Amino acid sequence: xxxxxxxxxxxxxxxxxxxxxxxxxxxxxxxxxxxxxxxxxxxxxxxxxxxxxxxxxxxxxxxxxxxxxxxxxxxxxxxxxxx
Length: 83
Known about the structure:
This protein is an alpha+beta fold. The radius of gyration is 12 Å and the shape is globular. The longest helix is centred in the middle third of the chain and has 15 residues, at 27-41. It starts with a strand and ends with a strand. It contains two helices and five strands; from the N terminus they run E-E-H-E-E-H-E. Helices cover 23% and strands 31% of the residues. The mean pLDDT is 96. It has a five-stranded mixed β-sheet with strand order 2-1-5-3-4.
């Protein structure tokens, strides 16, 4: 299974976090896992919610939740903001 390295920025802190995600994982699952991890890493600044989303920095778009990382074509180092 291939993995892709994402750079996730948490706006409340301005910090960046690296996440390895399986290329066959749907973006909705990636978002849920990232949101839960951010809640653990930054409990004073972030609480995971059902409407969390990952915004792709170069385009400002939120990706289709059911599409996998590979289907969309993300590669190592792609940057996202947790919104």
